[in-house]
Amino acid sequence: MSNIRVILRNIFSNWAAYFVSVVIGLVLSPIVVHSLGNNLYGIWTIIVSFSGYYGLVNFGITPSISYYLSHYYARGDVEQINRVASTAQTTLTLLSLLVLLIALPLAFWGGSVFSIEPQHAEEFTWAVLIMALTFVLGFLFAVYQSFFVVLQRYDLRNAVQISTDILRALLIFLALKNGYKIITISLITCACSLATYSLYALIISRMYPKLHLRIAYSGRQTLGMIMNYGIFALLGELARQILFYSSAILIGIFLNTAMVTFFAIAGNLIDYARNFLGTMTRVFFPVAAQSHSRAEYDNLQTLFFEGTKYSFLITILIVVGFITMGEQFIVLWMGPEYSKSYRVLFILSISYIPFFLSSTSNQVMMGMKQVAFMAKINAMAAFVSIAVSILLIQDFGIEGVAIGTMAALFVNSWFVIKRCMNLLEIPLKLFVGRVVLGPILSVVPVLIAGMCFRTISYAESWQKFVIQVGIMACIFLLTAGFVCIDKEFRTRLLRAVFPG
Q1: How many CB atoms lie within 10 A of CB 148?
Q2: Is the model's pLDDT at 28 over the cut of 90?
Q3: Residues 6+ apart with CB under 8 A from 8
Q4: What is the DSSP letter of 436?
Q5: What is d(CA 443, CA 484) in angstroms, rounded to the nearest whole number?
Q6: Do 285 and 149 touch, CB atoms closer than 8 A?
Q7: Higher pLDDT, 231 or 495
Q8: Mean of pLDDT over the chain
Q9: Using an 8 Å Cβ cutoff, are 232 and 371 in contact?
């Protein structure tokens, strides 16, 4: 497997970037809301939300080029690297024109669709066009972004991202303080994105000077290869979006919008945990792709065992925290009237245990080019989620929707883990013994401590809550250090962190 120091460097840099983005969001959001007012902030939210759908025009090319560039990089095939990169660059440039064509009618006629007030119509038009241009920049520089994955230099990419994110937040704060509105925010976002991508291109050009993007290197056969992977990646991602984000729509249709809020409070906490895990397991994809390209199945097995074990160890602690301390947190955070959201959080926490367990398997499967299988499984899980939710929502309300998510995630995770173990020839008994047992035993004392706090010493203040969480974290570190983390891995970990 790739050097553990490289993997840890990438994981911790991803966590740093994620932490900075969360802090910026928490600090900047109320400033933006109060500065723009409800109407303009609503308009800005619509523009940003709609911008996310431009990604569908990508047709899955971005994950596809990450796979094929990693594949040919592992083989040292510079000619194929330039063919894939140039074909992707040419295709994405043409698709960026499609993004602009989609944005034009939204900019000029979207105001009437979304009932934009006349005094804000011009701001809406310009902001839509500028944000579309911002998204186009992502298309034009996608190859350079993918190369950070190929070279496994997430740390450099995150360093640039953190710097420009902080700069963007400061510029937006100053703009709002001086009375500027959404057009200026759009321009700042676009300018900072251009600066980010330009730095990406500069860094990659210096790190991998063999990269040459030429239209002449583009080919129909290479495009077909890219699209074959990309279409399934796109379908799989669409199914995942339905699985994770259809709950609010179903609740709004069958119940009422007020119930959406109670579900969303629990759902947002789960999203934070899922995104946190994603920043860790995403670094396994290039490792898996390059090991698979070299037919290094021992490395793939090691990645599967260690990646699954330690990602599961971290995330199951979060799950136990949600189960034991979730209600206290929701009451302190949102108020006692939202305590019913805890029932949803409890169900979702149980639901996500197998999903967290399968996260490394997802990345290994994508690295082994099992993208078509993943698309089918994600589609099946999305169908199960919607069907079970509709079946239970009338009798069980939002808890029924949470149970629908549970059923879907159990189905999805089982098939993904089973398929991955079959490909790597790993028996179920060995998987349970090496991966599952240790993390579960490590969190049992934490679970007991949390339940004692919940029943005997309920946290009614933030101070008490933080102290209790701190105690649980210390217990976890002690038990995990001796129960789950073996001596050999502790030695490798210490050498990676302190190489001297």
Answers
A1: 22
A2: no
A3: 493, 496, 497
A4: I
A5: 10
A6: yes
A7: 231
A8: 86
A9: yes
Instruction: Give the pLDDT confidence score for residue 1 in this predicted structure.
Output: 45
Please provide residue 397's backbone torsions phi and psi, each rounded to the nearest 5 degrees. Answer: 65, -140
Across 364-391, average pLDDT? 92
Comparing 376-390, 399-413, 480-494, the range with the smallest average pLDDT is 480-494
Residue 449 host element (H or E):
helix 437-456
Q: How many other CB atoms sit within 10 Å of the CB of residue 278? A: 15
Helix H segments across 335-427?
A: 341-367, 371-396, 398-424
Q: Within 10 A of 339 (CB to CB), how many other CB atoms are there? A: 15
Q: Could you tell me if 356 and 316 are in contact, meaning their C-beta atoms sit under 8 angstroms apart? A: yes
Q: Report pTM.
A: 0.80
CB 457 within 8 A of CB 468: yes
Please classify residue 488 by burial: count the beta carbons closer than 10 Å to its beta carbon, then call 0-12 exposed, 13-18 middle and 19+ buried: exposed
Domain residue ranges in the chain:
1-218, 229-500
Contact 31, 176 (CB under 8 A): yes
Q: Which of the pair, 131 or 55, is modelled with greater confidence?
A: 131
Q: Are 412 and 381 in contact (CB under 8 A)?
A: yes
In this predicted structure, which of 16-25, 116-125, 205-214, 491-500 has the lowest mean pLDDT?
491-500
CB 443 within 8 A of CB 473: no
Asked if residue 348 lies in contact with residue 311, where contact means CB atoms within 8 angstroms, the answer is no
In the structure encoding, which two tokens stand for residue 292, read together? 């698979």
Long-range own/partner contacts, residues 115-122 (CB < 8 A, 24 or more apart) = 116/43, 117/39, 120/39, 120/40, 120/43
